[in-house]
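(Structure overview)
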Amino acid sequence: MRNGRMKWRLIGALCASLLSSGAPAADAQNSNVRLGQIGISFYAVTGGVIQEVLERLGHTVEVSQGSHSQIFPRLGAGEIDLLVAAWLPHGHAMYWKEYKMRAEELAVLYRGARFYWMVPTYIPETAVSSVEDLTKADVLARMQREIPGTGPDSGLMIQSTKMMSAYGLDAAGYVLEPGPHARWIDHYERATRDGRWFVMPLWKPQFINKMGNMRPIDEPKLILGEPNTGTLVASKDWVARAPQRTVAVLRRIDLGLDAVAEMDYLVNKEGKTPREAARAWMTDNQEIVDTWLASVPSH
């Protein structure tokens, strides 16, 4: 009898310990999370923050990445649970329109995200202040006609292609050249180092915003669209089965443009991996992270 009472006391103590220990909220059935991200560094650092938060909550995270046209269909097909990140309502409108029926907006990670065309700050504003100025004779005499860009399926490049004819840039001899992100960065670094006159599609948030050597030019027809929110989106099926605390914590995450630009700078200028950059920012901003991870009130 004594041994029986001792056994039940031990079992009770163990259960009480587990309930009160603050163990991760994720249960075994729902512990794996499939995180998809667009394959550009500023998305990767943002994804690094989401991954770190999920792992602190006890989840195992499977990360996959691809271009815009690769990753959004995976969200629609239920092959990923979370996507970092959709630019809404304008930047990724064509993708969101097609796949939003199976997904929902979970958290606004940053506000004021925008597409721009930019030129180096050493080009006088009196010479180039607008896209329309790119066809002026004195500007054409100095401006590089090749316009380097990123992947052709990005919202920025899709809209930039429309700009070429809308502003008569193709007729003036400009050529928009989509390409890998690494080549796009390499061109920016070499061209600014050499002091060349050039224009290129850019956006914020990203590390070049932090560099301070490029400035946006006006785009009067607003083909590039209005400001966006960088939004963490989730499969509706995943939200329905995910632990309540996990969903609540994710909904609290709010990084802001400066944080993303800072992490992207750590990757592109200081050689950190996206995950290292995310952890560095989170360490420096522990109070903010603690507000995300605070306990969820019971209902």
Q: What stands out?
A: Strands lie at 32-38, 60-66, 82-88, 103-120, 146-148, 175-177, 200-204, 214-216, 228-235. The first strand starts at residue 32 and ends at 38. The chain has 13 helices and nine strands.
